Amino acid sequence: RQRHGTDPCSFFHPEMAKQMQLEYELNTMFEDSIKKRDFQIYLQPKVRLADLTLSGAEALVRWIHPDKGMICPSDFIPLFEENGKICRLDLYVYETVCAYLHKRIEQQKDLFPISVNLSRAHFKDLNFLRKFSELKAKYGIPDGMIEFELTEYSFLDKQQREMVKNCIKQMHRLGFHCALDDFGVGYSALALLKDFDVDTIKLDRQFFVDMTNPKAQTIISGFIEISEKLGIHLVAEGIETKEQMELLKQFHCEMVQGYYFSKPLTIDEFEKWKDTMQKQ
Ligand code: C2E
Ligand code: CA
Ligand code: CA
Ligand code: CA
Protein backbone atom coordinates (compact mmCIF):
# COMPACT_ATOMS: atom_id res chain seq x y z
CA ARG A 1 0.00 0.00 0.00
CA GLN A 2 1.29 3.43 -0.90
CA ARG A 3 1.78 6.06 1.73
CA HIS A 4 1.05 9.67 0.99
CA GLY A 5 2.09 13.12 2.17
CA THR A 6 -0.58 13.41 4.85
CA ASP A 7 0.69 10.28 6.56
CA PRO A 8 2.99 11.38 9.39
CA CYS A 9 5.00 8.18 9.02
CA SER A 10 5.91 8.69 5.41
CA PHE A 11 9.39 10.10 5.95
CA PHE A 12 10.50 8.78 2.65
CA HIS A 13 7.79 9.96 0.41
CA PRO A 14 8.98 9.33 -3.14
CA GLU A 15 9.03 13.08 -3.91
CA MET A 16 11.12 13.76 -0.86
CA ALA A 17 13.55 10.99 -1.67
CA LYS A 18 13.91 12.44 -5.15
CA GLN A 19 14.56 15.87 -3.68
CA MET A 20 17.20 14.49 -1.31
CA GLN A 21 18.85 12.67 -4.18
CA LEU A 22 18.95 15.89 -6.23
CA GLU A 23 20.40 17.88 -3.33
CA TYR A 24 23.02 15.20 -2.80
CA GLU A 25 24.01 15.38 -6.46
CA LEU A 26 24.16 19.19 -6.50
CA ASN A 27 26.36 19.20 -3.41
CA THR A 28 28.68 16.59 -4.87
CA MET A 29 28.98 18.42 -8.18
CA PHE A 30 29.64 21.85 -6.64
CA GLU A 31 33.44 21.97 -6.32
CA ASP A 32 33.90 20.33 -9.68
CA SER A 33 31.55 22.82 -11.33
CA ILE A 34 33.40 25.77 -9.79
CA LYS A 35 36.69 24.39 -11.16
CA LYS A 36 35.24 23.75 -14.61
CA ARG A 37 33.55 27.16 -14.63
CA ASP A 38 30.14 25.62 -15.17
CA PHE A 39 28.66 28.52 -13.21
CA GLN A 40 28.10 31.46 -15.50
CA ILE A 41 26.94 34.96 -14.90
CA TYR A 42 24.05 36.44 -16.76
CA LEU A 43 23.55 40.19 -16.80
CA GLN A 44 20.20 41.94 -16.60
CA PRO A 45 20.13 45.62 -17.52
CA LYS A 46 18.86 48.37 -15.25
CA VAL A 47 17.48 51.30 -17.22
CA ARG A 48 17.06 54.97 -16.25
CA LEU A 49 13.49 55.93 -16.99
CA ALA A 50 14.09 59.62 -17.62
CA ASP A 51 16.24 59.07 -20.72
CA LEU A 52 16.10 55.28 -21.24
CA THR A 53 19.86 54.88 -20.84
CA LEU A 54 21.64 51.97 -19.20
CA SER A 55 22.33 52.65 -15.54
CA GLY A 56 23.94 49.31 -14.73
CA ALA A 57 23.40 45.57 -14.63
CA GLU A 58 22.70 42.86 -12.08
CA ALA A 59 24.80 39.68 -12.19
CA LEU A 60 22.64 36.57 -11.80
CA VAL A 61 24.22 33.14 -11.58
CA ARG A 62 23.29 30.18 -13.79
CA TRP A 63 24.57 26.65 -13.44
CA ILE A 64 25.24 25.25 -16.89
CA HIS A 65 25.67 21.56 -16.18
CA PRO A 66 27.06 19.28 -18.93
CA ASP A 67 24.43 16.56 -18.26
CA LYS A 68 21.60 18.37 -16.53
CA GLY A 69 21.55 21.50 -18.67
CA MET A 70 20.78 24.90 -17.19
CA ILE A 71 19.90 24.87 -13.50
CA CYS A 72 18.19 27.98 -12.13
CA PRO A 73 19.14 29.70 -8.85
CA SER A 74 15.91 28.70 -7.12
CA ASP A 75 17.03 25.05 -7.39
CA PHE A 76 20.37 25.50 -5.67
CA ILE A 77 20.64 28.86 -3.86
CA PRO A 78 18.44 27.84 -0.89
CA LEU A 79 20.41 24.61 -0.52
CA PHE A 80 23.76 26.39 -0.66
CA GLU A 81 22.54 29.01 1.78
CA GLU A 82 21.80 26.26 4.25
CA ASN A 83 25.15 24.53 3.98
CA GLY A 84 27.28 27.66 3.55
CA LYS A 85 28.50 26.89 0.01
CA ILE A 86 26.80 30.10 -1.08
CA CYS A 87 29.71 32.17 0.25
CA ARG A 88 32.10 30.41 -2.11
CA LEU A 89 29.65 30.82 -4.99
CA ASP A 90 29.04 34.54 -4.32
CA LEU A 91 32.79 35.12 -4.24
CA TYR A 92 33.11 33.27 -7.55
CA VAL A 93 30.36 35.39 -9.12
CA TYR A 94 31.99 38.53 -7.73
CA GLU A 95 35.43 37.60 -9.09
CA THR A 96 33.92 36.80 -12.50
CA VAL A 97 32.35 40.27 -12.52
CA CYS A 98 35.69 41.87 -11.52
CA ALA A 99 37.49 39.97 -14.28
CA TYR A 100 34.88 41.13 -16.79
CA LEU A 101 35.18 44.79 -15.78
CA HIS A 102 38.97 44.42 -15.84
CA LYS A 103 38.80 43.13 -19.40
CA ARG A 104 36.67 46.10 -20.42
CA ILE A 105 39.21 48.48 -18.89
CA GLU A 106 42.03 46.78 -20.81
CA GLN A 107 40.05 47.00 -24.03
CA GLN A 108 39.36 50.66 -23.28
CA LYS A 109 35.62 50.09 -23.37
CA ASP A 110 33.20 52.12 -21.26
CA LEU A 111 32.35 50.78 -17.81
CA PHE A 112 28.94 50.39 -16.19
CA PRO A 113 28.19 49.48 -12.58
CA ILE A 114 27.38 45.83 -11.89
CA SER A 115 25.57 44.58 -8.81
CA VAL A 116 26.34 41.27 -7.15
CA ASN A 117 24.02 39.44 -4.78
CA LEU A 118 25.41 38.71 -1.32
CA SER A 119 23.81 36.05 0.81
CA ARG A 120 23.26 36.76 4.50
CA ALA A 121 25.53 33.79 5.20
CA HIS A 122 28.56 36.08 4.69
CA PHE A 123 27.77 38.00 7.84
CA LYS A 124 28.82 35.03 9.95
CA ASP A 125 32.46 35.80 9.16
CA LEU A 126 33.61 39.28 10.17
CA ASN A 127 36.45 39.26 7.67
CA PHE A 128 34.58 38.41 4.51
CA LEU A 129 35.01 41.88 3.00
CA ARG A 130 38.78 41.59 3.02
CA LYS A 131 38.79 39.05 0.20
CA PHE A 132 36.35 41.18 -1.77
CA SER A 133 38.51 44.28 -1.42
CA GLU A 134 41.73 42.39 -2.28
CA LEU A 135 40.13 41.23 -5.53
CA LYS A 136 38.90 44.76 -6.24
CA ALA A 137 42.50 45.97 -6.02
CA LYS A 138 43.89 42.99 -7.97
CA TYR A 139 41.57 43.68 -10.91
CA GLY A 140 41.89 47.47 -10.65
CA ILE A 141 38.17 48.07 -10.29
CA PRO A 142 37.34 51.78 -9.81
CA ASP A 143 35.20 52.87 -6.88
CA GLY A 144 31.46 52.79 -7.41
CA MET A 145 31.53 50.12 -10.12
CA ILE A 146 30.34 47.31 -7.87
CA GLU A 147 27.23 47.29 -5.76
CA PHE A 148 26.29 44.55 -3.33
CA GLU A 149 22.64 43.57 -3.09
CA LEU A 150 21.53 42.45 0.35
CA THR A 151 18.07 41.21 1.23
CA GLU A 152 16.18 42.15 4.34
CA TYR A 153 17.04 38.81 5.93
CA SER A 154 20.59 40.01 6.43
CA PHE A 155 19.28 42.80 8.63
CA LEU A 156 16.77 40.90 10.73
CA ASP A 157 19.00 38.94 13.06
CA LYS A 158 19.40 41.18 16.14
CA GLN A 159 22.92 39.93 16.82
CA GLN A 160 23.97 40.56 13.24
CA ARG A 161 22.53 44.07 13.00
CA GLU A 162 25.53 45.96 14.37
CA MET A 163 27.82 43.91 12.24
CA VAL A 164 25.79 44.57 9.09
CA LYS A 165 25.78 48.28 9.92
CA ASN A 166 29.57 48.26 10.21
CA CYS A 167 29.89 46.19 7.06
CA ILE A 168 27.96 48.79 5.08
CA LYS A 169 30.27 51.50 6.45
CA GLN A 170 33.26 49.44 5.47
CA MET A 171 31.80 48.72 2.01
CA HIS A 172 31.56 52.48 1.45
CA ARG A 173 35.11 53.03 2.66
CA LEU A 174 36.30 50.34 0.26
CA GLY A 175 34.46 51.94 -2.68
CA PHE A 176 31.49 49.58 -2.96
CA HIS A 177 27.86 50.59 -3.11
CA CYS A 178 25.12 48.80 -1.29
CA ALA A 179 21.51 48.04 -2.25
CA LEU A 180 18.59 46.72 -0.24
CA ASP A 181 17.07 43.97 -2.39
CA ASP A 182 13.44 42.76 -2.47
CA PHE A 183 12.48 45.91 -0.61
CA GLY A 184 9.02 45.98 0.96
CA VAL A 185 8.30 42.26 1.25
CA GLY A 186 9.17 42.05 4.95
CA TYR A 187 7.70 43.93 7.85
CA SER A 188 10.49 46.27 8.82
CA ALA A 189 11.43 47.65 5.43
CA LEU A 190 10.93 51.31 6.31
CA ALA A 191 12.63 51.00 9.68
CA LEU A 192 15.66 49.54 7.93
CA LEU A 193 16.05 52.73 5.89
CA LYS A 194 16.39 54.69 9.11
CA ASP A 195 19.10 52.49 10.56
CA PHE A 196 21.10 51.30 7.55
CA ASP A 197 22.93 53.56 5.18
CA VAL A 198 22.10 51.90 1.84
CA ASP A 199 22.62 53.67 -1.49
CA THR A 200 19.78 52.01 -3.37
CA ILE A 201 16.52 50.22 -2.72
CA LYS A 202 15.13 47.65 -5.11
CA LEU A 203 11.37 47.70 -4.82
CA ASP A 204 10.11 44.13 -5.07
CA ARG A 205 8.25 42.83 -8.10
CA GLN A 206 5.13 42.01 -6.08
CA PHE A 207 4.16 45.72 -5.86
CA PHE A 208 3.82 45.97 -9.62
CA VAL A 209 1.83 42.81 -10.27
CA ASP A 210 -1.48 44.62 -9.78
CA MET A 211 -0.53 48.16 -10.67
CA THR A 212 -4.01 49.20 -11.77
CA ASN A 213 -5.08 48.94 -8.14
CA PRO A 214 -5.19 52.55 -6.79
CA LYS A 215 -3.90 51.44 -3.39
CA ALA A 216 -0.93 49.72 -5.01
CA GLN A 217 -0.23 52.94 -6.90
CA THR A 218 -0.35 55.02 -3.74
CA ILE A 219 2.07 52.66 -2.02
CA ILE A 220 4.48 52.66 -4.96
CA SER A 221 4.47 56.43 -5.40
CA GLY A 222 4.86 56.76 -1.63
CA PHE A 223 7.98 54.62 -1.65
CA ILE A 224 9.35 56.61 -4.57
CA GLU A 225 8.77 59.87 -2.70
CA ILE A 226 10.38 58.56 0.48
CA SER A 227 13.44 57.32 -1.36
CA GLU A 228 13.81 60.70 -3.07
CA LYS A 229 13.56 62.58 0.21
CA LEU A 230 16.13 60.28 1.78
CA GLY A 231 18.45 60.65 -1.20
CA ILE A 232 18.40 56.93 -1.91
CA HIS A 233 18.29 55.57 -5.46
CA LEU A 234 15.33 53.37 -6.37
CA VAL A 235 15.00 50.50 -8.82
CA ALA A 236 11.58 49.02 -9.65
CA GLU A 237 12.07 45.27 -10.16
CA GLY A 238 10.24 42.82 -12.37
CA ILE A 239 8.74 45.33 -14.81
CA GLU A 240 7.18 43.37 -17.66
CA THR A 241 4.67 45.60 -19.43
CA LYS A 242 4.42 48.96 -21.12
CA GLU A 243 1.56 49.90 -18.78
CA GLN A 244 3.74 49.35 -15.71
CA MET A 245 6.50 51.37 -17.34
CA GLU A 246 4.22 54.29 -18.22
CA LEU A 247 2.82 54.50 -14.71
CA LEU A 248 6.28 54.40 -13.18
CA LYS A 249 7.31 57.23 -15.48
CA GLN A 250 4.40 59.27 -14.17
CA PHE A 251 5.57 58.58 -10.63
CA HIS A 252 9.10 59.74 -11.55
CA CYS A 253 10.58 56.37 -10.75
CA GLU A 254 14.34 56.55 -11.27
CA MET A 255 15.30 53.08 -12.60
CA VAL A 256 13.61 49.88 -13.74
CA GLN A 257 14.74 46.31 -14.25
CA GLY A 258 12.63 43.60 -15.82
CA TYR A 259 11.62 41.55 -18.82
CA TYR A 260 10.05 44.62 -20.47
CA PHE A 261 13.55 45.83 -21.29
CA SER A 262 15.35 42.52 -21.15
CA LYS A 263 15.60 39.21 -19.38
CA PRO A 264 19.00 38.28 -17.90
CA LEU A 265 21.43 37.77 -20.81
CA THR A 266 24.77 36.08 -21.39
CA ILE A 267 27.64 38.56 -21.52
CA ASP A 268 27.76 38.39 -25.32
CA GLU A 269 24.03 38.93 -25.63
CA PHE A 270 24.20 41.76 -23.10
CA GLU A 271 26.88 43.61 -25.05
CA LYS A 272 24.82 43.34 -28.23
CA TRP A 273 21.75 44.58 -26.37
CA LYS A 274 23.74 47.51 -24.98
CA ASP A 275 25.04 48.47 -28.44
CA THR A 276 21.60 48.49 -30.09
CA MET A 277 20.17 50.40 -27.13
CA GLN A 278 22.85 53.10 -27.46
CA LYS A 279 22.23 53.49 -31.18
CA GLN A 280 18.56 54.28 -30.62
P1 C2E B 1 16.76 38.58 -7.17
O1 C2E B 1 18.09 39.03 -6.65
O2 C2E B 1 15.56 39.28 -6.66
O3 C2E B 1 16.87 38.64 -8.76
C1 C2E B 1 15.80 38.97 -9.59
C2 C2E B 1 15.14 37.72 -10.14
O4 C2E B 1 13.96 38.10 -10.85
C3 C2E B 1 16.00 36.96 -11.14
O5 C2E B 1 15.69 35.58 -11.04
C4 C2E B 1 15.50 37.52 -12.48
O6 C2E B 1 15.72 36.65 -13.57
C5 C2E B 1 14.03 37.65 -12.18
N1 C2E B 1 13.38 38.66 -13.02
C6 C2E B 1 13.95 39.76 -13.57
N2 C2E B 1 13.04 40.49 -14.25
C7 C2E B 1 11.86 39.83 -14.14
C8 C2E B 1 10.53 40.08 -14.65
O7 C2E B 1 10.25 41.05 -15.34
N3 C2E B 1 9.57 39.18 -14.31
C9 C2E B 1 9.84 38.09 -13.54
N4 C2E B 1 8.84 37.25 -13.29
N5 C2E B 1 11.08 37.81 -13.05
C10 C2E B 1 12.08 38.69 -13.35
P2 C2E B 1 16.81 34.47 -10.99
O8 C2E B 1 17.95 34.85 -11.88
O9 C2E B 1 16.14 33.16 -11.19
O10 C2E B 1 17.33 34.58 -9.50
C11 C2E B 1 16.49 34.30 -8.43
C12 C2E B 1 17.11 34.70 -7.12
O11 C2E B 1 18.28 33.88 -6.86
C13 C2E B 1 17.62 36.13 -7.11
O12 C2E B 1 16.56 37.00 -6.85
C14 C2E B 1 18.64 36.07 -5.97
O13 C2E B 1 17.99 36.17 -4.74
C15 C2E B 1 19.20 34.67 -6.13
N6 C2E B 1 20.48 34.75 -6.85
C16 C2E B 1 20.77 34.77 -8.17
N7 C2E B 1 22.09 34.83 -8.39
C17 C2E B 1 22.68 34.86 -7.16
C18 C2E B 1 24.05 34.93 -6.70
O14 C2E B 1 25.03 34.99 -7.46
N8 C2E B 1 24.23 34.92 -5.33
C19 C2E B 1 23.18 34.89 -4.45
N9 C2E B 1 23.45 34.89 -3.12
N10 C2E B 1 21.92 34.83 -4.85
C20 C2E B 1 21.66 34.82 -6.18
CA1 CA C 1 19.17 40.85 -6.46
CA1 CA D 1 15.16 41.39 -6.02
CA1 CA E 1 14.07 37.83 -5.06
UniProtKB/TrEMBL annotation:
Residues 23-278 form the EAL domain. This is Diguanylate cyclase (GGDEF) domain protein. The chain holds residues 172 to 451 of 455 of the full protein. It comes from the Bacteria. One of its GO terms (molecular function) is cyclic-guanylate-specific phosphodiesterase activity.
